[in-house]
Write a structure and sequence with these properties.
By secondary structure, the protein is of the alpha/beta class. Strands 3, 4, 5, 6, 7, 14 and 15 form a seven-stranded mixed beta sheet that branches. The protein has a six-stranded parallel beta sheet with strand order 10-9-8-11-12-13, sandwiched between helices. Strands 1-2 form a two-stranded antiparallel sheet. Helix 6 links the parallel strand 8 and strand 9. The protein is globular, with a radius of gyration of 19 Å. The two termini are 13 Å apart. Bound molecules: zinc ion (ZN) (2 copies). One zinc ion (ZN) binds next to helix 2.
Amino acid sequence: MRAMIMERIGGPLGVREVPAPALPAGGVLISVAATGLCRSDWHAWAGHDDIALPHVPGHEFAGIVIAVGPGVTKWAAGDRVTAPFVEGCGACEWCLAGNAQVCPQQQQPGFTHWGSFAELVVIHAADTNLVAIPEKVSFEAAAALGCRFATAYRALTGRARLAADEWVTVVGAGGVGLSTVMIAKALGGMVIAVDRNTDSLGAAAALGADHVLVADGSDIPAQVHALTGGTHVSIDAVGSEQTCADALLSLRRHGRHVQVGLLPPVDGHPRVPMARVIAWELDVFGSHGMAAADYPGMLALIESGSLEPQKLIERVIGLSEAAGLLPRFDTANVAGMTMIDPRR
Ligand SMILES: [Zn+2]
Ligand SMILES: [Zn+2]
């Protein structure tokens, strides 16, 4: 198969023919039709994850099942599918309770095994982890769900439990941030979007953000408090000490913060303003994707047209172009989502 190959951490990425992955028991082999490029891919490339080399990145995808391993009962060749980026084992207490996103034996395509920046990808424990794509939903839209969109959906619903007419501060207007804006508006919330990139803020406004604030070094929490008295919910969709603090300090008393952007402990653990968490009795949540079991509610909103993840896709590129873009993805300032067609 043709795939994007990482030979070493932080090195240049190439595209070439490699052997197709072996089909494990309980797993399926999928022909990739669309796959999203995400900041998490950059984290893996930069060495923030434990990966075995050579490696194929990519963890947000949609495609068609072409072969099923022994023991798979729910899926067959020809099925249109996607999967969350966390593959639960399917057998532990967390998976059996529908929480595969925190499975202790989890695997992740593009991290623990070869991912979807290739013509073919394997998904383990398919009966637990695959999601059928409704006929009306395109491969590109479905590929947008697996990581950022589903994570935003679960952050707002399963974690922050956003109610209609509540204010949300969304720090970061990249893929996950724009997903959060779209979903918060669909849930009846009011949104302040924050980003350093004015193009990204333009995209957030187009998706219905009630206010946008440029992160230009000015006091973001003070501006949020002036506009709203502090928001009920805050989401850090970037993952830095600054964005985490800006989001958390934008909350009103008893507010709920959800940390979505990854905070790798590269310079020691990031400092978080816990004094405010204590004094204002703030709730702080983590969010780690969403299990396949929770997809039906989100897919119903997509099928009905209330949510349109395809609107977040700004460009579709081939594998070679993606190989050039990935190493500079943390600073590339690309608005919206980038989708890869691995057949290009
Ligand atoms: Zn499990
Ligand atoms: Zn991702």
